[in-house]
Amino acid sequence: MVKYDTVLIRYGELSTKGKNRKDFIRKLDQNIRHILKDYPELKYQRTHDRIYIRLTDEDPEDISSRLQKIFGISSFSFTRKVPSDLALIQNECLNIARETDKKTFKVITRRHDKTFPLNSDGINRAVAGEILRNTGLKVDVHNPELEIRIEVHAGDTYITSEKIPGAGGYPTGINGKVLLMLSGGIDSPVAAYELMKRGLDVEAVHFASPPYTSENARQKVLDLAQMTSVYNQGRMRVHIVNFTDLQLEIYKTAGDPYAVTLMRRMMYRLAEKIAQSKGCLAIATGESIGQVASQTLESIACINAVIRMPVIRPLVCMDKNEIIDLARKIGTYETSILPYEDCCTIFDPKNPVTKPTIEKAEGFEKKFDYDKLIADCIENMTTVTVHPAEAEDFL
Amino acid sequence: MQRRIYFDNASTTAVHPEVLKTYESLLEKYFVNSESLYDEGTEVHRMMEKARAAAAGLLGVKSNEIIFTSGSSEANSLAVKGVMFASKDRKHIITSQIEHSSVLNSCRQLERVFGYEVTYLPVSSRGIVSADDVRQALRSDTALVSLMQVNNETGAIFPIDEIKEIVKKQSHAYMHVDMTQAMGKIACSMKDIDLASVSAHKLEGLKGSGILVKKAHVQLEPLISGGEQEYGLRGGTSNSPADIVFAKTLRLALENQKKYHDYTAGMKERLLKGLKEIEGIEINSPDDGIVSTVNFSYEKIPSEVMQNALNARGFMVSARSTCESASNNPSYVLTAMGFSERRASCCIRVCLSYHNTPQEIDLFIEALKEIISHYG
Known about the structure:
The complex is a heterodimer. Chain A has 14 helices and 15 strands. Chain A folds into 2 domains: about 160 residues, VC0802-like; about 210 residues, Rossmann fold (3-Layer(aba) Sandwich). The longest helix of chain A has 22 residues. Chain A is elongated. In chain A, the strands form 2 sheets. In chain A, strands 1, 2, 3, 4, 5, 6, 7, 8 and 9 form a 9-stranded mixed beta sheet that branches. In chain A, strands 14-13-10-11-12-15 form a 6-stranded mixed beta sheet, with helices on both faces. In chain A, strand 2 and strand 3 form a beta hairpin. The relative contact order of chain B is 0.16. Chain B has 2 domains: about 130 residues, Aspartate Aminotransferase, domain 1 (Alpha-Beta Complex); about 240 residues, Aspartate Aminotransferase, domain 2, CATH 3.40.640. In chain B, helix 3 runs parallel beside helix 4 and helix 5 runs parallel beside helix 6. Chain B has 12 helices and 12 strands. The chains are: A alpha/beta, B alpha/beta. The interface between A and B is small, with 9 and 12 residues.
């Protein structure tokens, strides 16, 4: 096996962001160190366009799978580092070529250090010549099975044969904090992922309705938060609001068709208050247009009207199947479909209104003192911070 | 820390301290395979056979009529399928609609995959099968009658003495009795019974441990193929520490049966008195069921919601059989008893033990009243 000694990390979109660039790189560096913190031997080096991680004996597969979850990385490669000297470069490339079982190859050089005696094309030819003379491999410049990449910098040169795509996006946390409504369904964890991908730090609020919802349902939400916390710098705060008394009051006042509309309006009000107190600048939801009665454009308009804070809906125009594919990719799907009641299905009305009006909703809301109930909900809110799964001590 | 009160003793019981102590020392000292030929192996084998003989003695059967299993679900599966697989010409089984899922699903599998015929007897509003129905269902090709002695959801006691007499006199069928919920609670006789299932963890023993009593004359095909363990009827290295400690588990349960019974009867009386004070609560268990189980419904609050509310107040209870608790369907036991779907969807099962106190019963009644006034 080719033993790589360095991981070369290429930045994502942040390369385009002029003066904030330093902050972005620092945040990305922080996030990478955090996700790899149980590898204390790693040595990090940061330059204006790359982060290098020096390996000793760590498991490259594990490091690779962790790095693929970090937003702000466009791609990364496991490389061998050699001094920038043509003979040494040729020799290392030949080693890679000798170990491969592939039949065709191509050498791709980028010369960052313009003082290096050969230009890119010259290096390509020199290295390819060495490989052609000493192995059975053939050059194929259009569809090579093996791509040997050489990056020549002043002092050191990095040689790699594989470019692993990163997760893209911005380093999580760089763009501020949002409060996500996390239900336990398929959509909201995917929304969390999309938010984190845009560099947002995500806190969650979950509305629970005990005893109509069970401890299992609450645990399921925490499990989902734990899974997505991998993308959120290894932690996620979940605020749990006991919503039962407010729901019972809504049901008593409004009855069937408007119950869900009013429930969502109350959730938005609660979310805004919590967001303000936690320093979040926006609320986020997993809503997608038309998916259920409360997600028609009319419903969204009627529900959104109760708050002023911006509401981010990352999934708003996605099809259910696209959302499911993403949920599978981030690993939350199987947990999301566990059949526990959530607070929305508990009062699931037979005929929910699909075109609610603000006037009617306000008419119902005049009939009871919801401010008091909302204040009680906030008063009794509990907060749990989850971290990516760690081995439990009985295992 | 909230006080937690355990009212779910038909699901499982806390391990008896003496059982635990013995088990721990067995696990530590006697880890070797009971089939090994060196001294340590023969010692474990000797202890297992001693335990087998002790269990047999307590039940009034012969040593070689005790087959150690992983519990009642396995014992029931082995009894039902093992007998039918060994039955050459007779392909008919009689059971009831309210058996444990291990019996019912074995029967369904025999119908579906192997083409056997099964009669599922109905039950009365008191939750029991009538001996007369068994008599009428018996056919010349009936190979097995499999019935429970005590129902796990309601505590109803089947008239097993009457039934087994009919089965013996009027047929050649084997009589299998699922004694999982009866052992240690009421008298369990092995007389005129061909097979019986017993579980350890319902008797303050270990999970993953139980026996099938199989009388010597009964022909049985194994379900787990393997070596000669358990007379070739159950392959696989014996779970010897668990099997050994089964004898002590059974002894302790039977020795204390009367004491536990009399104490628990007082608790049940107190519970029923409290429940009767609450308007809208209907008792689903028959009056003459076992003293530890009380099943009731409050039709305005579904089982799951009531369980969550009770859980939040520190009470551990079940609704239907715990083996069925993942499903949201109404209890098939209560439905078979003729109760409405609503009532069968709102049941709660309280299963007492001698550990429970009068104060716990009173707290439970208080909590119920509070829940009903809030969510009812």
